[in-house]
């Protein structure tokens, strides 16, 4: 149908409200083709389509919800129609009137309507002062997020006070909105960071700064402190690539925490050598008298002699030491050296007995620093059918800004290990010209892209990300991966099993997490690759050199052996698991998948929440499969369990409505309780904003997901479902009680329910007795408030139903909430059955809610193959 015929079918001056009623009817019936035709015909028949659209939006409320609403459909169709009819847009006084009307709508509309409306009504041409005044009005009303988002869309930030706009958002934990607000303006980024850093200055009380906002909704002052501010500043520094020197207070705080951590590792946990500790202390304290003094005070409590030595080394005034200590320094120094040597010898002896030992001679470990030396490595590694263990080491950053740069690249093949001095090799290539510069990256790309060569790693995404940061020519290497096996995923599968593992690799049943680590044969500090080595090979890795300064040359012998062990143990693990997977609780199918599908999926460049959270089939989520290039493996809502932070209760209710097993924190609960529940019950944490930074470190990789807090609950639910590939079917909707999360229901016929309701009104004078006819209530069904065609109920043992006083009570003591059934519901002829939650007693019946949920989540349902049923029921 052409546009000319569209125009001739309707008289000029059609009432937009009549058009709206017609469109609403077609939208309800899901008649898409007729709907589009009527929309186009309606636009042509309106005297002023732009004014007509506003009239329809002002007299309808469906567009205020997010997602694919009728208002959104009409708006986007008008946007397309205007492109085909360029003479339609208004100008002059009429346009200004329309712009004033649309601004009132923008403050209420969802994010997906902002851009179309701004484009249609040319708000970029509106008077800037008028726009700023409108945003200021929203701000004064307390609509801080709406004011910020509208400012972003209209690019008003340069004319606004960044501190005034951002502080309320930060107090409401709308960090992602703040990031977007300053995202395109480096000068605003710097100003915001300086403001936040000034709050972290010693002696500043954050409560004084936030006191004017105490009446702010959703503000929790106890969650806003120097530590969370510090994390936020480093996150922003990293995202916007700003020089950390701009934030001296936050950087100094991070260095203080690093010194505390180093002190703990060396003198409490005792897992760091003296040389490694001294290297890091020196580089962290630098020339700062404050940091130097802090370390000396730490040392005074445990080892005064060492405190005096460091004070003298840095030239600190001796009055920082207790009286007389400086004079005793030579004697203390000698005594301490003897004690350290004895401890070191004892440690080396015990280490050889208790830790994994390289099964190859020292002569077969090659440290390579020139291109000519690396040729022998290339010849052996790039052989079809070769299996290569790959690992990387870098200098610990201790939370500072920027990706770590790889200092050592280890490659292990049968009976040999090659250690590539990556910084030296790249530096030489840079000096020798463009052609030589490409050789090393080309070799690495050849290795990772060759499907005939099996590459083994542990947590390879992090390694490859650092490799890309080290050499710009490898920035796309994650897109070229073939023949890669990440043993982290196998480790997750091992941990997922019910039992633990002894040193001989055999399963130990019945040990709960409360048992000591000694009972399980696992040392307390083991984790990651070391724990996997212990499970499979019988002894853990010695991780003493893990926090070495890997950029310092020459490497010590201990560092060389540690680096070689990290790569070579991957070969032995892989060989052992492939040979006998059943003895480790792994199915042969899993190992066939492991051997046959060796690609990993590159991490997404951009996440919806600007947080890293990989898909369930990736290494950070389920741990049940190897990472592959396929989409995440589909999972049903019944197989997916989550715990929602207390600020996401709306999201939790939506997911529970779709059949997901959801636990929700109460308002008074601390965020950290989510991590405790997740660990105990194997749930994924759903959170948002700053708590994500804390919670993700307390659970396994990929077991914490940050949703977009600027979205509404329904959009957040869609985000979670798509991210974890949760496939929702019609039978999942309301398969759990919305009140208590239970998935067991009693099906009660209408007449039996009528007896219970009437009986509860008269039972105050009746003695307690077992009600006759309890056999009518012997069926459990999926929870829903509407009966669905084709639903097969699952028969279980009959539950006896008693009456106690005025209550109808199940055998387990659950009181049915029959009094909550509104008058008249039992008289509806179409109702044949009621569904009663067996845990809380909530009663459900057929209503309109099911159809609304189907309509809201039809995109997800369509993706799972329920298209026909969706349209029949909605």
UniProtKB/TrEMBL annotation:
Residues 610-628 have a biased composition (Polar residues). CDD domains: mut-7_like_exo. The keyword Thylakoid does not apply. It comes from Pipra filicauda. Residues 505-525, 605-632 are annotated as: Disordered. This is Exonuclease mut-7 homolog isoform X2. Residues 365-582 form the 3'-5' exonuclease domain. GO terms for biological process: nucleobase-containing compound metabolic process. GO terms for molecular function: 3'-5' exonuclease activity; nucleic acid binding. Keywords: Exonuclease, Hydrolase, Nuclease. SUPFAM superfamilies: Ribonuclease H-like.
């Amino acid at each position: 149908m052409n546009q000319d015929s569209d125009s001739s079918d309707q008289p000029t001056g059609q009432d937009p409200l009549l058009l709206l009623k017609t469109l609403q009817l077609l939208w309800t019936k899901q008649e898409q083709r007729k709907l589009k035709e009527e929309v186009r015909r309606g636009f042509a028949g309106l005297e002023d389509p732009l004014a007509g659209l506003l009239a329809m939006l002002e007299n309808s409320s469906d567009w205020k919800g997010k997602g694919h609403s009728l208002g959104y459909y009409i708006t986007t169709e008008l946007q397309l129609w205007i492109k085909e009819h360029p003479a339609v847009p208004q100008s002059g006084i009429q346009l200004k009137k329309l712009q004033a009307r649309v601004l009132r709508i923008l403050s209420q509309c969802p994010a997906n309507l902002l851009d179309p409306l701004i484009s249609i009504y040319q708000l970029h041409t509106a008077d800037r002062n008028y726009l700023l005044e409108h945003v200021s009005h929203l701000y004064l009303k307390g609509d801080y997020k709406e004011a910020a988002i509208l400012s972003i869309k209209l690019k008003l930030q340069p004319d606004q006070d960044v501190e005034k706009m951002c502080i309320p958002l930060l107090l409401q934990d709308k960090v992602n909105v703040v990031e977007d607000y300053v995202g395109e303006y480096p000068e605003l980024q710097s100003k915001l960071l300086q403001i936040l850093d000034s709050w972290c200055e010693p002696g500043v009380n954050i409560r004084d700064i936030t006191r004017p906002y105490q009446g702010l909704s959703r503000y929790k002052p106890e969650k806003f402190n120097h530590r969370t501010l510090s994390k936020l500043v480093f996150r922003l520094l990293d995202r916007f690539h700003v020089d950390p020197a701009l934030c001296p207070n936050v950087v100094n705080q991070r260095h203080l925490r690093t010194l505390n951590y180093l002190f703990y590792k060396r003198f409490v946990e005792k897992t760091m050598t003296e040389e490694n500790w001294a290297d890091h202390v020196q580089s962290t304290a630098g020339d700062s008298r404050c940091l130097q003094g802090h370390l000396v005070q730490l040392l005074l409590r445990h080892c005064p002699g060492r405190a005096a030595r460091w004070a003298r080394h840095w030239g600190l005034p001796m009055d920082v030491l207790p009286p007389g200590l400086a004079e005793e320094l030579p004697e203390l120094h000698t005594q301490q050296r003897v004690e350290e040597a004895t401890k070191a010898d004892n440690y080396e002896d015990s280490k050889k007995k208790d830790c994994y030992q390289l099964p190859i001679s020292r002569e077969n470990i090659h440290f390579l620093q020139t291109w000519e030396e690396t040729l022998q490595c290339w010849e052996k590694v790039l052989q079809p059918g070769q299996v290569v263990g790959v690992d990387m080491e870098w200098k610990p950053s201790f939370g500072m800004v920027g990706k770590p740069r790889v200092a050592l690249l280890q490659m292990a093949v049968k009976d040999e290990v090659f250690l590539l001095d990556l910084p030296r090799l790249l530096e030489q290539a840079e000096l020798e010209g463009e052609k030589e510069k490409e050789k090393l990256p080309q070799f690495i790309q050849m290795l990772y892209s060759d499907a005939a060569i099996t590459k083994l790693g542990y947590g390879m995404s992090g390694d490859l990300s650092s490799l890309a940061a080290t050499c710009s020519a490898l920035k796309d290497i994650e897109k070229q991966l073939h023949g890669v096996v990440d043993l982290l995923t196998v480790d997750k599968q091992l941990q997922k099993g019910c039992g633990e593992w002894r040193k001989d690799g055999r399963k130990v049943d019945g040990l709960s997490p409360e048992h000591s680590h000694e009972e399980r044969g696992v040392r307390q500090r083991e984790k990651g690759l070391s724990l996997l080595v212990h499970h499979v090979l019988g002894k853990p890795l010695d991780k003493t050199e893990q926090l070495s300064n890997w950029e310092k040359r020459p490497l010590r012998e201990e560092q060389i052996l540690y680096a070689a062990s990290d790569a070579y143990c991957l070969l032995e693990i892989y060989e052992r698991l492939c040979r006998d997977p059943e003895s480790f609780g792994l199915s042969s199918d899993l190992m066939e998948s492991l051997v046959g599908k060796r690609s990993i999926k590159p991490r997404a460049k951009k996440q919806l929440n600007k947080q890293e959270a990989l898909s369930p089939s990736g290494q950070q989520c389920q741990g049940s499969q190897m990472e592959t290039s396929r989409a995440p493996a589909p999972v049903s809502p019944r197989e997916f369990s989550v715990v929602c932070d207390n600020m996401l209760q709306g999201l939790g209710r939506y997911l529970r409505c779709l059949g997901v097993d959801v636990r929700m924190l109460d308002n008074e609960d601390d965020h950290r309780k989510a991590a405790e529940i997740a660990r105990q019950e194997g749930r994924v944490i759903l959170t948002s904003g700053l708590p994500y930074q804390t919670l993700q470190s307390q659970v396994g990789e990929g077991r914490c997901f940050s949703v977009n807090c600027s979205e509404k609950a329904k959009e957040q639910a869609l985000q979670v479902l798509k991210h974890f590939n949760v496939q929702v079917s019609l039978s999942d909707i309301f398969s759990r009680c919305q009140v208590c999360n239970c998935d067991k229901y009693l099906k009660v016929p209408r007449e039996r329910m009528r007896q219970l309701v009437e009986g509860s009104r008269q039972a105050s004078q009746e003695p307690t007795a077992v009600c006759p006819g309890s056999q009518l209530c012997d069926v459990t069904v999926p929870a829903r408030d509407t009966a669905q065609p084709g639903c097969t109920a699952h028969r279980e043992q009959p539950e006896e139903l008693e009456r106690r006083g005025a209550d109808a009570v199940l055998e387990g003591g659950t009181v049915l909430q029959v009094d909550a059934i509104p008058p008249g519901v039992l008289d509806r002829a179409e109702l044949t059955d009621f569904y009663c939650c067996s845990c809380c007693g909530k009663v459900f019946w057929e209503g309109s809610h099911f159809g609304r949920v189907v309509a809201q989540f039809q995109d997800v349902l369509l993706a799972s193959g329920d298209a026909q049923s969706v349209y029949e029921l909605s």
